[in-house]
C-alpha cells in the first residue's frame, strides 16, 4: 500500500447504474480495476479538500451483469478498506421499502441497525451470528444534510420476498431491504471503520406490483435521488 491509495471517504456501490449518477455529480475520475483478479472498479476525486474513492462491484464476465449481493459486497469491502484506509465507509445503493411504514419511491434511508433475513442456523451462537444484528453510530450531521429516514435495514440474497421473510420484517420492524449492507457492516467492523448506509427506495415490498417491474421502472429516479444524497453526505462529512 502506498500513501497515494488512501482516502478520507470510501463509497461502495454494487451496481454501475447506481454509481454513475454519483460519479458524475462528484466529478470522480476512473482509476481502473481495484485488483487484477476482480471486476471491481475504482474512481477517485475530492470534495472540499477531502479525498474520495468510489468502488463498484464490477461486471461478472460470465453472466454479463453487475456482481450484486453479499459475496461481492464482503470481498470488495475488505479489499477497498485494506487499500484505501478511509475515515468513513459509505455504502450507497437501492432498496425495497414498505408502504406500511410510510415509505415512498425515491425516499432515502440511513439505517443504523442491520440484519440478515435469509440466514437461518438453529444452533446455539450460530443463530445470532447468522442473523447478524448489528448497530452503527448515527452521524447526525449527515442525517440532517440528507434528510434521510431512520430504520432497520435487512440484507438477503434475493430481490423478491417470501411469506416467511414478510413475517421476519414485521417482527423486526424492518424499514428497508437490500442485498449488501449487513455484509459490508461486518467487514467495516473488522476494520474498525465507521459506516454509513444510504439507500434509495426503488420498490415497495408490500405493494402488488412485482419487485422487478418497480425496480426497473424507478431505478433512474431513485439513483438520481441517491446521488444527491451522497453528494450532501460527502459535503457534510468533509465538514466534520
Ligand atoms: N434493491 C432494490 N430493491 C430491492 C429489494 N426489494 N430487495 C433487495 N434489494 C433491493
What does the model show?
The protein is an alpha/beta fold and 240 residues long. The protein has a single domain (3-238), classed as Nucleoside phosphorylase domain (Rossmann fold). Helices cover 35% and strands 27% of the residues. It is built from seven helices and 13 strands. Strands 1, 2, 3, 4, 7, 8, 9, 10, 11, 12 and 13 form an eleven-stranded mixed β-sheet that branches. A two-stranded antiparallel ribbon has the order 5-6. A hairpin with a 7-residue loop joins strand 2 (29-33) and strand 3. Helix 1 packs parallel to helix 7 (211-238), helix 2 runs parallel beside helix 6 and helix 4 packs across helix 7 (211-238). The longest helix has 28 residues, at 211-238. The chain starts with 8 loop residues before the first strand and ends with a helix. The site of adenine has 12 residues, from strand 7, strand 12, strand 13 and helix 7.
Provide the fold topology.
Elements: E1 9-13, H1 16-25, E2 29-33, E3 41-47, E4 50-56, E5 59-60, E6 65-66, H2 70-84, E7 88-97, E8 108-109, E9 113-116, H3 126-131, E10 134-135, H4 140-146, E11 152-155, H5 163-171, E12 174-178, H6 181-190, E13 195-204, H7 211-238
Parallel strand pairs: 1-4, 1-7, 7-13, 9-11, 11-12
Antiparallel strand pairs: 2-3, 3-4, 5-6, 7-12, 8-13, 9-10
Helix pairs in contact: 1-7, 2-6, 4-7
Adenine (ADE) binds at residues 94-96, 159, 177-179, 202-203, 205, 211, 215.
Amino acid at each position: 500500500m502506498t500513501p497515494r491509495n488512501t482516502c478520507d471517504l470510501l463509497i461502495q456501490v454494487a451496481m454501475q447504474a447506481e454509481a454513475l449518477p454519483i460519479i458524475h455529480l462528484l466529478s470522480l475520475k476512473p482509476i481502473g480495476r481495484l485488483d487484477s483478479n476482480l471486476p471491481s472498479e475504482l474512481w477517485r476525486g475530492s470534495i472540499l479538500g477531502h479525498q474520495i474513492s468510489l468502488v463498484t462491484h464490477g461486471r461478472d464476465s460470465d453472466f454479463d451483469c453487475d456482481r450484486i449481493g453479499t459475496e461481492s459486497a464482503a470481498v470488495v469491502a475488505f479489499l477497498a478498506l485494506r487499500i484505501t484506509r478511509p475515515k468513513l465507509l459509505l455504502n450507497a445503493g437501492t432498496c425495497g421499502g414498505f408502504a406500511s411504514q410510510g415509505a415512498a419511491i425515491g425516499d432515502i434511508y440511513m439505517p443504523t441497525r442491520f440484519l440478515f433475513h435469509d440466514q437461518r442456523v438453529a444452533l446455539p451462537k450460530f443463530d445470532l451470528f447468522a442473523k447478524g444484528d448489528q448497530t452503527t453510530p448515527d452521524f447526525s450531521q449527515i442525517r440532517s444534510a440528507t434528510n434521510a429516514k431512520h430504520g432497520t435495514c435487512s440484507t438477503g440474497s434475493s430481490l423478491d420476498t417470501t411469506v416467511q421473510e414478510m413475517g421476519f420484517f414485521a417482527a423486526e420492524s424492518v424499514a428497508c431491504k437490500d442485498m449488501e449492507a449487513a455484509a459490508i457492516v461486518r467487514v467495516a467492523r473488522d476494520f474498525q471503520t465507521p459506516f454509513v448506509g444510504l439507500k434509495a427506495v426503488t420498490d415497495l415490498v408490500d405493494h402488488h406490483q412485482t419487485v422487478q417491474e418497480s425496480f426497473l421502472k424507478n431505478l433512474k429516479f431513485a439513483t438520481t435521488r441517491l446521488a444527491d444524497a451522497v453528494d450532501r453526505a460527502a459535503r457534510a462529512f468533509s465538514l466534520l
